[in-house]
Design a protein that fits this description.
Keywords: Signal. By secondary structure, the chain is an all-alpha fold. It has a domain at about 25-95. It is about 75% helix and about 0% strand. It is built from 5 helices and no strands. It has helices at about 1-20, 25-40, 50-65, 70-75, 80-95. Helix 2 (about 25-40) packs across helix 3 (about 50-65) and helix 2 (about 25-40) crosses helix 5. It is extended, with a radius of gyration of 19 Å. The protein starts with a helix and ends in a 7-residue tail after the last helix. About 15% of the residues are buried. The model is unreliable at about 20 (pLDDT under 50).
């Protein structure tokens, strides 16, 4: 009986570890979508305007929030300071996928 419990606990631990390591934060989701958008909008000379970059981030943020549960969206957006912090994190992540010329 003890061995059976031990196996179940180990399986549960591995499953939870797998779930949490594959979970993306809201910031990561928005940044990933933003980078995909930016890659599609980069001009032939390898540049993208600041306005286009902002549009990509805004559009991506909207898409990610629309895919979430309403309660989670309320939790994520109820505190303006937290929203600003998240945006700073997102823009820091997005900088990595911008063309070098910017």
């Amino acid at each position: 009986m003890n061995l059976h419990l031990s196996k179940n606990c180990t399986l549960f631990f591995l499953l939870m570890t797998f779930i949490f390591t594959n979970a993306q934060t809201i910031e990561e989701e928005v940044a990933k979508k933003s980078c995909e958008c930016i890659q599609m909008k980069v001009s032939t000379n390898g540049q993208i305007s600041k306005a286009e970059t902002q549009k990509c981030v805004t559009k991506s943020g909207d898409e990610v929030l629309k895919s979430k549960d309403l309660q989670e969206v309320k939790r994520l957006t109820k505190n303006m300071e937290e929203v600003v912090k998240r945006l700073k994190i997102i823009y820091k992540m997005v900088e990595k996928c911008l063309p070098n010329s910017q």
